[in-house]
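wait is this the right file?? whatever heres the structure
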């Protein structure tokens, strides 16, 4: 045995104090995913992050505030970047929509989104303030961003006349559901879902653009009624 054994490494929070917020957020997402929002404790998150029990309270007073910051860093900042990028672009609405859908699709396949989705669907009903926060800052904001792209396409004649917010809601919900099905294809083997996620994405993009394509017929109604029985 060596006469001078290597000393135990210092806790991460001592070696990298500037990394504390990031480490806390990463640890929080892990613990929230494992134990759920209701059962998670700040002490458990502090331990996972390599912090002393008291140190985490210097950054977050409670787990609700910590959850808000997790959502901010994981989702809201992504939406903010997309808002700035889309507002600065001058290309077609079609190109913007296709790129937005592909970027969003990649994020939907991340572990962080899967964890947040489970928490939002399964637990936020018990945290009305957090539910209101998530609806306002994530869902509504993302829908407005997507609706803005659709509205530009409608105004430019690229897309048919449609309520942009309805289109945004449909595109968002289809993207989420398809991504979740792809992640569960090994469980639900009877569901007809291509093995390649890229194929599913292209099918989704094709479907959305087909639904938005302008109708060049001036006589055809937007929603034809079924033929009447004689």
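ok assuming it is, sequence goes like this
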């Amino acid at each position: 045995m060596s006469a001078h054994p290597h000393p135990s490494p210092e806790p991460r929070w001592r070696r990298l104090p500037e990394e504390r917020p990031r480490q806390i957020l990463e640890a929080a997402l892990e613990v929230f995913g494992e134990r759920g929002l209701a059962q998670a404790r700040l002490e458990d998150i502090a331990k996972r992050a390599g912090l002393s029990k008291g140190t985490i309270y210097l950054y977050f007073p409670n787990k609700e505030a910590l959850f808000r910051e997790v959502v901010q860093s994981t989702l809201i900042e992504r939406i903010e970047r997309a808002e700035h990028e889309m507002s600065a672009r001058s290309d077609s609405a079609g190109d913007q929509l296709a790129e937005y859908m592909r970027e969003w699709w990649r994020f939907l396949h991340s572990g962080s989104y899967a964890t947040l989705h489970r928490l939002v669907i399964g637990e936020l009903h018990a945290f009305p303030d957090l539910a209101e926060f998530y609806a306002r800052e994530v869902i509504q904001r993302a829908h407005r961003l997507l609706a803005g792209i659709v509205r530009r396409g409608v105004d430019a004649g690229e897309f048919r006349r449609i309520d942009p917010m309805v289109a945004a809601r449909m595109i968002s919900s289809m993207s989420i559901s398809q991504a979740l099905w792809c992640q569960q294809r090994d469980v639900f083997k009877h569901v007809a879902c291509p093995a390649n996620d890229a194929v599913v994405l292209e099918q989704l993009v094709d479907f959305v653009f087909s639904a938005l394509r302008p109708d060049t017929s001036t006589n055809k109604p937007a929603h034809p009624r079924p033929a009447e029985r004689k």
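Residues 1-13, 218-230 have pLDDT under 50 and may be disordered. so i think its the right one actually
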